[in-house]
Amino acid sequence: MKNFALKYKGPLNILYTIFYLSVALVLTIFNSESIMVPVMGLIIIIFALWRLWTLIKRKEKTLTIKLYLGEIVGQILIGGVFIYIGWVTRGSLGVWFGYLLGGLFILRGTLYFYGTRVSDQTEDLATFFIHIAALVAGTYLIIEGTFTPAVMSGIVVTVALKRALKTGFVAYKAYKNPETEKQEPVQDLKSIEWQETTPEVKEVSDHDA
Asked: What is the pLDDT of residue 176?
């Protein structure tokens, strides 16, 4: 996979650039709320179903698992509300968008640390800090109180444009200075044959001496 990415570095970064620019353009031209809200709802539901699958594989019936299941139900309900308001009623969540997301972040972080304490298990540091960030972000969204789909759309557009500049520059460099593979020098067949037969000749000469 790494070799494929290096071999097609230019075309891949052009595709990335087109994708990022398309995202920024769509969110700028069209109503950001009718796009951002249902898309976020789909992401929440997909994440909830993935967590449900991981819990089913654990086959446990502890209090922590029951709390996780309640959280998953809440995530699916909120995700469904986002999709219903964005695509069916064409309504507006306004600041409730930030409140609901903040509540989900706080609940996820709290249950993660509760489950870790109860099971006495430590996970990787990346997961630990992600849930710390979830608690901080959720608290900020609720206290700040003005996080709307339009604000999130602006953040996504900014990030997409920055990524488009980066991938576009990488694609430009890849086409301007293509990396050529170094070819190993081909040895002459006679020289290879001479190198293989020389030791035998030396052994014979030493024996005769």
From this structure: 79
Q: What is the pLDDT of residue 90?
A: 80
Spatial CB neighbours of 91, under 8 Å, sequence gap ≥ 6: 85
Burial (CB < 10 A; 0-12, 13-18, 19+), residue 135, is middle
In this prediction, residue 179 carries a pLDDT of: 60
Q: Which pLDDT band holds residue 1 (cuts at 50, 70, 90)?
A: low
pLDDT value for 183: 44
pLDDT higher than threshold 90 for residue 4: no
Max intra-chain CA distance, the chain? 102
Asked if residue 2 has pLDDT above 70, the reply is no
C-beta separation of 31 from 149 below 8 A: no
- Is 31 or 180 the better-scoring residue by pLDDT? 31
What HEC string does the chain produce?
CHHHHHHCHHHHHHHHHHHHHHHHHHHHHCCHHHHHHHHHHHHHHHHHHHHHHHHHHHCCCCHHHHHHHHHHHHHHHHHHHHHHHHHHHCCCCCCHHHHHHHHHHHHHHHHHHHHHHHHCCCCCHHHHHHHHHHHHHHHHHHHHCCCCHHHHHHHHHHHHHHHHHHHHHHHHHHHHCCCCCCCCCCCCHHHHHHHHHHHHHHHHHHHHC
